[in-house]
Structure formats: C-alpha cells, structure tokens
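Morning!

This is the sequence you dropped in the shared folder:
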Amino acid sequence: MRAFLAAFTVALMFTTTACKEGDQAATQSPPAASSTSSATAVRALPPSETTAKQALDTSPRHGEYVDVPLANDQKMRAWIVYPERSGKAGVVILIHEIFGLSDWMRGVADQLAQEGFIALAPDLISGFGPGGGGTDSVPSRDDVVKLVRGLTPEIARARLDATRDFARTIPAANGKFATMGFCWGGGKSFVYAASHPAPNAAVVFYGVSPDSATLLDVQAPVQGHYGGDDERVDATIEPAKQVLAKLGRTYDPHLYAGAGHGFLRQQDGREGANLKATQQAWPQAIAFLKQHLE
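The structure's back. Tokens below.
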C-alpha cells in the first residue's frame, strides 16, 4: 500500500517502446491529477486480458448483444451492459483495440456499468468476417488485426455515428454520451472528439493524437492516458496539447512511468508498472466521465 500511494506523487517521465498496433508516435505529460487520491485507491479495476472471461462469467450485471442499424439495411453487432441504478445513465461508447470486440473489451464494458454508466461496445468489423460475421467468427487474432486495419476512416466514422444514434434510442440513457478507446480505438476516440455533434467527453488510452487539421475541430473535452515506455504514441501528445491550448480546448494527458503500450489490458506486465498505471488511470477516467455525463 505504501508503494502504491507513493505512485500518485512521483513525477511522471518519458521512455520508449514499440507498439504492435501501428498508430504513430508521441511525447510529454503532466503529473497525475489531484482527483486521484487515497480515497480512489480501492476502486475496482477492469479485468486484465487473463481475467476477463472469469469476470464476465461471474458478473451480476445484465449484458447482451444487440444489433445496431447501419445503412442499406445492414446491422452491426454490439455488446451493451446496463448499470444497476434507479435513474437514467450516461452512455460510454467503447472503441476496441486492433484486436476487435474481445472478451477483454466486454469485460471493460462490464466494469463501466459497475461504475454507473451504460456501456456500449460496437464490433466495428461486423460483416467483414467469414460468412458475414464479426470478431468472434475470425479464426485468429492476426486475422482480426488485418480486418481492423482494413477499416477506412470513413467506414469507422460511419459505424461510430450509427452507434451514437443507437445510444440516443436507449430508454435508460440520459441523453449524454462519451467515447473511450484503446490503442487503435484510442486514436479513434480522440478523432471523434472533433465530430459534429461532439460527444460530451472523450477518453483516450494510449492512442495517437489526430492530425493538425482534425485537432482544429476538437470540441469535446479529452482526457488521455499513456504508458511512459510507449514513445511511438507519446510523441503525438505535446503537439496536440499545444494546438488545443491555443484554441482554449480541454486536453488532459497523463503519462505513467515504466508502463508500456496496452497497460490496461496487460496489467501483469512490466514488473508491476502496468498495474500501477491502471490503478492511477482508471479512477481518473471514471471521475472525468462522471463529471461530464452526470
């Protein structure tokens, strides 16, 4: 516990690492926000990749697959989890990694529902798998990666727009929504902060920042979380921060020393640094979402 509490006060630093996801690179970061205190240290965390299936199997919350309408009478599969609460809730649209709608992604959705949000995770490669299936129809992770990388920005944007429109029809929703993405999906979450209409908030986990033209259109407040040993992504932080600061927009990046790319999924990696990063980042992300969705 003493080492964990100390992690909230140490200065955050930069290092380097490679990213399998092929996003493009970045630099910089401020200290952890003051909202991360000992009071949040006991907050439940989303599962890691190795514990996701068990977390889903034992969850008391209601999760199910739904069909999101697309153009030309097509449909996209999505996973939705509802919180156990009496009032209406904000919707968090989860944008998956380059590994598609995995059990881990569904486990993160379940944890968001525990925090009081409606979590909606679209399978953005729905229809592109064997027999018109999605992630779970694809025989290998490498094949999923190829399909995700094959999504054009236009297709990804149209499918996120359809997910947003679907979120507005959920009777239990309060009318507010945010995006939260991871690696490939983290970059898409940042880009979607420039959409019209913009989300109420966008959370980026180790995703590259948009190009300078897209940054000019960012309206939604953005919070970012990055591994200190992920220089390919980290090199895009400072340029985005400078542009958005000049525009008076909110961009709140956090860098976690020693953590690698994908730290929220690989919590047992890098000799404890990934877990420490998760313990710091997740409470801040939840506080940010509650600030803008409730």
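Headline: Residues 273-293 form the longest helix (21 residues).

More detail when I'm at my desk.
O.
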